[in-house]
Amino acid sequence: MSVGKRMRMKRVIDPFGVSIICALDHGMTSPTFLEPLADIEARTAETVAGGANVIMMSKGMIRRAEPAFSRETALAMLLSASANAGEDRPSVVAIAEVEEALRLGADAVVLFVALSGESEADMIKTLARVGGECDRLGMPFIAEAEFPTTYATVEALADAYGFEYLRRNVRLCAELGADVVKTNWPGDGEQLGRLVEATSGIPVVLAGGTRVDDQELLNRMEAAVEVGAIGCSVGRNIFMHRSPQAITRALSRVLRERWPAQKAYHALQEELAS
Question: Which of 172, 170, 180 is nearest to 18 (CA)?
Fold first, then answer.
């Protein structure tokens, strides 16, 4: 790993060895506009105040949200978007380059990796190309090894694609140069542990996925820590929450301070009631 990549990785993964990523990129991926994203600067400020150390967003929103970044906040810039986002297998299209992310001050780049179907060969080529460019330019690479669509429940996606789809995806991302692999909740902690093992030591963060209740979200994150994941990448379960700052703080308590999920949930309820 180059010096430049090591320096940037210190911001992507904090001194506790944790990465709490708030994904504010859903304007690029959602089949419908999600109203809380209308004020991207406010959502950024709330999550930074709650303890997120990485904000994920597209290049166009960086200029709007930049005032809300702290000196310690890392920027992860999205390199891809979903065409035909409402379909079961949307096409992943490139919308930015690694050099562009460097010019905009990014500390990492993010690529959504959807396998299977006619576009799989092109997807693998793109994954390999981005991995090579990140290695050459000293840019940390976060690969989203997820189901082809993230706008359905875990249960529906698991039935449609299966655990082995995720395991193959996380391994492929690790093989082709990812520095951090993001993946979906596979259904239980034991299976998530097998996904962590499949990366052979490349750090794994757990995606928040579709909206779930606060207790379930925190339970999943507690399980993720127990099987070796280093953090989370959560979007809708943060920015669509009635208090993005409070739920981010609860996630930080579980992931960074190692609170039990139940304790963090009770503290969250007290904060929301006050």
Answer: 180
- pLDDT, one tens digit per residue, over 243-267 is 999 999 999 999 999 999 999 999 9
In total, the chain counts a number of residues equal to: 274
Which one from 25, 107, 179, 214 is the annotated catalytic residue?
Answer: 25
All domains in the chain, ordered by first residue: 3-273 (3.20.20.70)
pLDDT at 28: 84
Q: Out of 9-13, 31-35, 73-77, which region has the weakest mean confidence (pLDDT)?
A: 31-35
Which distant-in-sequence residues (6+ apart) come within 8 Å of 29 by Cβ? 81, 82, 85, 112, 150
Q: Which one of 59, 161, 165, 182 is the catalytic residue?
A: 182
Q: What is the end-to-end Cα distance of the chain in Å, rounded?
A: 47
Give the active site residue among 5, 107, 151, 214.
151
Active site residue 151: yes
pLDDT in the model for residue 88: 65
Bridge partners for 110 per DSSP: 78, 142
Is residue 142 within 8 Å of residue 178, measured between CB atoms?
A: yes
Sign of the alpha-carbon torsion through 191, 199, 6, 9: negative
Average pLDDT over residues 30-42: 93
Question: What pLDDT does 32 receive?
Answer: 87
Paired tokens of 191 = 């299976």
DSSP string, 182-235: EE---SSHHHHHHHHHHTTT--EEEE--S---HHHHHHHHHHHHHTT--EEEES
Structure-token match 């990796």, residue found = 113
**pLDDT at position 30:** 85
pTM above 0.85, yes or no: yes
Residue found under tokens 């929301």: 272
5 in catalytic set: no
